[in-house]
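note to self: dont lose this again. the chain is below, predicted strucutre after it. 159 aa total, dont forget to put it in the shared folder this time
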Amino acid sequence: MHRLPQSTRRHFLGLAGGAAVAGAVPIVTLRPAESTPAMLASAINNVTQGVLVRTGKVKLDVPPLVENGNTVPMTVSVDNPMTAENHVRSIHVFNEKNPQPNVGNFHLGPLAGRAQVSTRIRLADSQKIVAIAKLSDGSFWSASIDIIVTLAACTEEVI
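---
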């Protein structure tokens, strides 16, 4: 016949102490810092170095309404030839409210064939997305779109 070990006072106190410590630990809700319009402007200025950014040439294809901010499809294309003399050097994507406003940097050259990039991004909330293209002549061109996110990413609570 197999007997279960008897509870001892020491065992009981150990369990009670562990429960007391677990109850004393505060439950912390962590939320990432939210970006501000000033942070967006600063991130754009870091790329453009103060050069005037003109509207046009860039097409930003993102759904205007997304259910889930975890995987938002995005395509950026630039209406510009991709020749050795005249090509798109880079495409930069920024967002307004995520903790890091610079979402992506894509470097291209004339051998790319066309100036287009596609990816998926995470969005913490409804916000503006800005795409900026730098051309080989040093000019910058942009497009922006406002996106409504019904279920935000990056804001899960940790308990």
